[in-house]
Each structure stands twice: as C-alpha cells, then as structure tokens.
Sequence to fold (1136 residues):
Amino acid sequence: MKPILEFRKIEKAFFGVRVLKGISFSVPEGSILGIVGENGAGKSTMMNILGGNLRADGGEILIGDERLVAADPRESERRGIAFIHQELNLFPNLSIAENLFLTRFPRAGGLPWIKRGELNRRAAELLKEVGLDVSPDRSVETLSAGERQLLEVAKALSFNARIIIFDEPTTSLTSREIEVLFALIAKLRARGMTMIYISHALQDVFRLCDDILVLRDGEVVAHDATETFSTDKLISLMVGRSLEQVFPGRAKTRSGEVLLEVRRLVRGEVIRDVSFSLRAGEVLGISGLMGAGRSELARAIFGLDRRSSGEVRIHGETVRKSSPRAMIRRGLAFLTENRRSEGLCMDGSIAENLTLAALPIYSKHASGWLSRENIRTAVQKMRGEVHLDAKARSEQPIRTLSGGNQQKVVLGKWLLRNPKILILDEPTRGVDVGAKAEIYRLISELAGQGMGILLISSEIEELIGLSDCIVVMRGGTIVDELARAEFDRERILRAALKAA
Amino acid sequence: MRANVLARNPLAGAFLSEYFVLLLTVILFVALAPFAVGLASSESALNIVAYLIPLFIAGTGLTIVLITGGIDLSIPAVIALTSVVGARLMTGESSVISVAVGVGAMLGVGAAIGAFNGVLITALRLPAFMVTLASMLFFNGFAVWFTQSSNIGDLPANYLALGKQLPIALTAAVVIGVVFHLLLSRTIFGRWIYALGQNAVAAHISGVPVQRLTFATYVLSGFCAAIASVILTGRLETGSPVLGREMLLDVVGATVLGGTSLFGGRGRIYWTFFGVLFLTVLDTALNLMNLSQFAVTMSKGAVILFAAVIDATRRRFVAFA
Amino acid sequence: MNRNAHRILQFSPLLLFVLVLVFFGLQSPRFLDPRNLANIAAQSASTGILAVGMTFVLLTAGVDLSVGAIMFVTAAIAGKLALSGTPVHVVVPCMLLAGMLFGSVNAFFITKLRVVAFVVTLAMLFVGRGLSLWITETRAMNLPAIYLEIGSARFLGVSIPAWIFLAVLIVGHLVVTRTPLGRQILAVGHDVEAARKAGIQTGRILAAVYVISGLCAAAAAIITLGQLGAVSPKFGEQKEFAAIAAAVLGGTSLFGGRGSVLPGALLGTLLIQTIENGLVIMNADPYLYPMVTSGIIFVAVALESLRNRSAPVAR
Fold:
C-alpha cells in the first residue's frame, strides 16, 4: 500500500523549548494509526501542525505525493484532512444541518436563500452514514456528547476528508456511545478511509489500530504493527528513561505536623471523593492524565471552584468560606498551570507582578500606603532567591521575559507571601532546561525549610525525582498511592491509564 | 520585528509616548492661534482653566474605572441629578450649614448612583456600558421629573463662590488630581486597580478582592462627577436638570485621548489632564472661530473616534512588543 | 437553576406583555378598545423597525447606539430634498442609501480599525446629530403634505406604517432564519474565533449587521416622517434606547448568538409601546417616560443575565 501521509523530519519549538525533534513516519492509505505517549510527548503539537493550526519550524509533510504548504486550517481541510479536536468546534445555537453546511449552504439559484429541503436531505444522508438517528433540524444544544462526536465525523465526511484525526474522542462518552463510534470507525476503514487515533485508552488503541506509533519527549521511539506490541511493552516504551535531568538530592523525609487535610472532597463529576493529607516538609506528587481531575482538585482546594461536598482543613482547622483571598491568608499559594492567562499580568512589570500577592505586607498602616523602599528590597531579595535573569530590569514588562523567567516570577510572587503550603500545577511546563533545574532546586529547598508542597505534574520523572509520596488520579479519584520506596514509572502509568 | 521598526522611527516613538497628546495640544494651539482671534490671551487662558477644572475632576474618576477595564457613561446624569438635588436643598437659604448640607447631599447622591452601578455590574455581571447607559437615561429622566424640567435658582452666595472663585475650584482640582495620582501610584488600592485591568483572573487568584474593588471604582467615579457638579452648579448659579448633558463625549474622549485604554490596564491621572487640556483648547479655539454649536459637537464626536482609533492601534503595537 | 425556572424565563416577555395588558386594561377601559390597539401597532412601527436592525447587531454581540442619530440625518436629508422639490419616489431611496452609508462608516471603524462597537456608535451618535443640526440649520422643517398622507393612509384597514413594519419583520425574520448570512451571524455571535476557524469571513458578517442596522434606521425615519410630517431638532432622540430595550426584552442576548426577530423583536416592541400608550391614557407625567424606558432596560438586562445563568448548556 502506498502511503497517503508522510512526515519528514518535522521540528517544532515553543519559546526555545524543542517539543518535536525531527518526527518522521508514514501512514498507508486505508489504515488506522494509533498514536500513544505521555502528556506533553508532542502528540497534539504534531497533529496541530497537520491540521494547519501550527506552523512547523522545519521538515515537510506530504499528502499523497504533494507537499502540504501553508499553516492554514482551511488549506489542510482542502487537502482532505479533518481534525476532530477534543473540544468540538460546533455551534450549539444552530441546527445539526446548519453546522454541517455552515459555509456551503445549498442555495436556491443565485439567491442568498437556503434550500431547506435540500439542506436537510443532504444532512440526513450524512447522518445516516455515521449512524446518527436524529432529525437534521434539531438544535445541536440538545445532542449528547457522543452524538456531537458523530456529528463531527459527519462534518469531516461532508468535506470529503481522506484522513480523519481523532484526538481522545472517547473521554466524555458513555460506553454505549463508544461502541457506536467504534462501529463507525470500522465502517469507515472498510471504505478505505485513513485515520489517526490518539488516545490514552490503550485497550481501544489495540482494538482499533493497524499500527501504533509511540512518541516520547518529541521523538518517535517505536512505530510498528499493532501485533508486535503488548500493553507492558507500550507502557515501558512510553515512560522510557530520560536521564538528562538531574534532580537535587532530597533530604530524608521528616514527618512534620499535618498542614493540609482534604476529606472526601467532591466537585460535580470531576472530583469524586478525594482524601489525602500533606505534612510540613513533604512533597506530595499528584500524577494522572489530562482530565483526571488534578488541576480541578487544586482549584477546589484553593477556593477557585466551589466544592460540592467534603472538607478542607488547614492546621487542623476546617475552612468554611473558601476564596483565593481567604486561602492566601491561611498560608496557601497556588501556581496554576496557565502561566499567561492566570499567573501573570502580561502588561505589568517584573516588580509589579512579583509583589502583587504580597502587597498588604508592604503597607505600614490601614491607608494602604506602600513603602517603595520595602518593595524595592523585597523585589531585589526575591529576584536573587529565584535566580531571575540578572540582566532584566525590575521595571521591564513581563511579556519580554522567557517562559522560564516568567515562571520564576510567578513562583517568586507566592514566595514573597511566605506560604506554609504551596500548590504547584505543572511548574515546569514550557520552561527551558536551565530554569527547570532551578525550579527543582527551589522545590527541594522549600520543602527542606518545612513547607508542604503539592506537586502536580505530567512528567513522571519529575514526580519521582522530587516527591516523598505520589498519588495517582484517574476519573476524579485517587486510584493508587506510592511511598518513596515503591516509586515505579510503569506502575504509575499503568494506574493512570487503567491498564491493569 | 514590528516593535523594533517602531522604536527606530522617531515619529512612531512620539506616537507611542505618553506625552503625545501634550505635543498635539501645542501643535493645535500654534496652528489655530492665527485663526482664533484671542486664543493667545490671558482672558482665554482663564477661560480654558475654568472649563478644564470640572472636566478634569470628572475625568479623574472615569480614569480609574477605565483602568479596571470598565466604563462609566452615567457621569452626565450624576452631574444633572446632584445639581438639582443640591439646589433644591440650598435654594433660599443662606447659612453655612445649609451649604454644607447641600454639598454633602450632592456628594452623597453621586456616590450612591455610583454604588447603584457598581452593584448591578458586580452582582448581576452585566456589561458596564449597558448598566451605566441605562443609568444615565434613568437619572437624567429623574432629574427632569424632579424639577419638572425647570431650573432652581436663588442659591446661597457662599455656595456660588465655590464655582465662581477660580482659586477654590483650582485648589479642589489640584488636590483631587494629586490624591488620585498618589492613590493609583503609591497604594495597594492603585496596584490592585492596574492588576485587575491587566488580568482579572490572575488578580483574583493573587488574592485581589475583585468584586469590592470594581464596586469601589464606580463609587469613586460617581463621587468625582458630583464634585464637578458642585463647581458647575455654582458657576451657573442654578441647579439645572440638563447640566452636563453635553459632557459625556468630552469626558470619555478626553480621558481616552490622554492614553488611558478602553481595554483596561493602562492609564494615568496626568494623561487625563493632557487629554482634557487638548479638548478644552480645541473647544475654546473653535468657539473663538465662531463655528456653530453643531460643528463643535461634530468635532467632539470626531475627537473621541480619533482617540479610540489611536487606543486600538497602540494596543496592537504593544501586543507586538 | 432548574429547567422550570429556565422555561419561565424563556417566556418572560410574553408573560410580561400579558401582565401589562391586564394592568392597563383594568386602569382604563379605553385601553383595550380595538382602535387603541391598532394605534399601538402603528406607533410601534418605527421603534419596531429599529429593534429589528438592533437584533441583528446584538446577535453578533455588538451594539449600535447611533440609530437615533441616523434617523435624524436621513430625515434631515429628506427634508432638504423634499423642500427643494424632489419627488417622494426619489427621496425615499436617497434616505435608505444614506442610512446604509452611515452604517458602513460604523462598520469600517469596528471591523477595520478594531474599535469597540459602543464607542464607535456613541461617537457617531454625536457626529450624526451635529451633522443633522447643520443640515437643518437647527430649525424644524415641515414636509409637503404628501408625506403625512402616506403616513396616515390605510390599506385593507391597516395603516401603511403598520404594513411596512410587518414587511420588515417578515423580511428580517427570513434573513435571520433562512439565509446563509443569518445563520453565519448566529455562529459569529456565539463565538467569533470558532466561526473564523470554521471558515466564515467574520469581518464581512460584522460589517453587514451595521449596514442592516443603518438601513433599518432609515426605514424607521421614513415612517416617523410619514407620521409627524416634520423634522424637528429632537427627531429620533433616544430612539436607540427604545430599540435596545425592545430587542433585549424580546429575548435577544447582549452577549450574542441568541435571539430572534419573530417573535422577539415584535414582542419587545409591543411591550414597550403598550406601556408608553398606557401611560398616555392614564395621563401620567410625561417626564416619567424616560425613567420608565430605562427602568424597562434594567428589567430586560437583568432578566437576560438570569437567563444566561440558567441556560442548561452553560459553559
């Protein structure tokens, strides 16, 4: 079979961090390729380049025999590539048929008049092909997650797609809906459609795909026929052993007093009954896949999202009214996963961002008058502590800094408050290797000083290198708990993937 | 790329500078002086200062609202309603106490309208422009109904002095300008205001009391508008339900022209002073040139459009930097 | 909030309308007289047409504060032309053209220069009114009798303004529900970025709604001219508020993507006009009217905020 799609040495870096390191592979026409890899291995980046949402820094993509040139979603679409994102691109305020033909309505003659009859007939044909048994003039608002997924496939078919990319299509589907989707995928394959299937659900990948490609740290580590893999082999390939990062030696765990206690925390469907406690001087790692409820857990503890039930105790005291403000007063700090949208005021300066959370400390009286001298000293001291780029002026806008230095500013902002409990959500995401090492050093030092640290990370290496204990989350609950002596990459990934 | 090109181009540098509007004012003054007879006279200078003061005071409150990313279109209604309420309380009286009560009531009403806006914006999460626009309509209507569309005269002499004695008004303006400048640049409140306008989510996570802060800015804006009304009413010697009706575009236009962004996060009190100065000079010059009232209105509409276009353009440049 | 509350909020305009009818009906027997109701329909025409245009703009999450000023400009132009002897069948197309031109200026600033819609249209409100005062030389102009005759003429027992209103409603409704433009407007209003990704030319769509709004403002001016027979300096003043209130009361969201011409804009307009008519019949203080209008806006946006929060597919 001749390949319909070929990647040749595709390169991509974000803010100087290489996320795709010369990716090459090809897909034969009419086959299904499964792509697996840990969070951050580069799967989404790779597919976003193919879908035209991102531009590759180097290399080329061939579709059929022709090069795919522009980084433009419409160009990719024209070349027959349909990318079904995890977050569907549908308009709930329009009907099914309208969503299908939004830019290509069948018109009456040359008039700007939609031929409803034809629109609905053509939509009905597409719906029949994907096995969606609903009226085409129903509002998308009324469709279930599974039905919307099928609608996206119908949309892909309507564009005469030759390659359909599925990115984690089953995360929000019920098991019955999953069966319907799989039957459709099988049917499309029988018709000669090429598909790429990205998923953490390994049993699904085994069931559906002809070939499997394993991605790790932006590199292809394996690409072969499905029969040649076993679950164990896949997992060990995914975790690999990258030894490029050196972790600071952690002092022996001292079991200090309990700082934070979470009891039976529930938030809607995303967090279901989570309990754990964090002691002074302890680094508690939280592992899990995207959507496992890790960030949601952190947000609920910090009072950003309301919890449905359960309690949070700090220093043994139950917190009733929780808001970020109240939690900060009680000694909590929270570095969120979205540095740019939640961590920093991008138009503000380094000094302004560093002092934002700690301002009340620098005013002597109730008027809120700030002492410039105190602020300057504090900024200077904190810049040294987090090893911020010495060349940067404190008045410099934060947007001019590299990702690593920006992250150090966010960390510094919280450290100025002298927190007792520090929640770090993906602290090294989009950060260069040098800054990474410094953030690791800081985490280790802070724990040594008696701070309790909750470390959420998608990098298992990072968790193993820094934590005293690791809990694994899946589907909103804690599914495994490992003490330091039990740390095992494969066990962690297995728990996160539910690959028993 | 683009930012570098800009930095090297002196014209673009001037355009992005915070003194851009001051420069424009000077150019405007020099260009129009030959046509507007008497523009370069001490009389016209006094005139400019007199017009500038209430506009600047109202603009100060608006600046704070704009920095948080909000807007207050109800300023003219605050001026009108406080004017008639104050006048109703003071008319026919002459004691110092009645003046104090009247002025106190004016400031109170101003702050109350601001609080009303603030509650609707924070509690119901409605768009600020819609709330304050409806407020403007409502309180303007209320002022007209309250007086049955007539003016209230016979105000106490010691009150009129507040408006007529330039030094008093000037002192008030300087004090307010300095206080608010310090509030923005040297206090927690000020730093929070900028943070809120730059990134409300990050501010919330960092422990900034976003709701209370937003509420406070609208109260301050209403309060400032009320002070402007105290001066304007005193100068006019009557409480008028249509006082300040033409001021909306002047205030918003001058503030945005000064460089305070409609998108939030950027703004300074002295920028607003520059913007107000520009608008007042333009206004005075156009009047001296005997242009009709509608030409003046139109040119003001054009000024705010111009200011908004500059604001949008600046924003795009900064995004590239 | 649960589904029932949501459903009640969905029907709140209709519910309010019935309440208002009952309230004024009890206050004065004259109110429910068929002739008075026909009157309400005719009085609704100009506000209603503006509300149709405003609905288009609001569907994209924009706003047009310049519609009252556009009414004044087009009426002033009409006055000038009519008084210099231009026949009606030339004047009317000129007005429509002028309305669209003004709408295009709004569109230019909003889509090309990326200035916020409410600032652009607020500035245009002042520019437009200034321009009109200049054209009319700040005087009232009485138009030839033919205009009043058209405005009060009847066809099948219904006045011409009411017919025009009906026509605009039907056309507006069909454009929103049955043309590619209408459906793409809804898509843009729901999420501009998603619409762009889906391949919609969002700039064009946004421009179109302001031109449509300008056109509707001109049509409203034509009707008002027919009913008043004159252009005064207060022509079209504060009409933008009535139009926004009518559209939002009819269930059109300020945040875009949700709303309708039929029944939305029609219901909202009738509600406002009925209240105003009821106040007149009750001999209420005329100075209360603007307060009532703004009070209605507050109610409308508050209801809209509640609707938004109760929507079952929030987020």
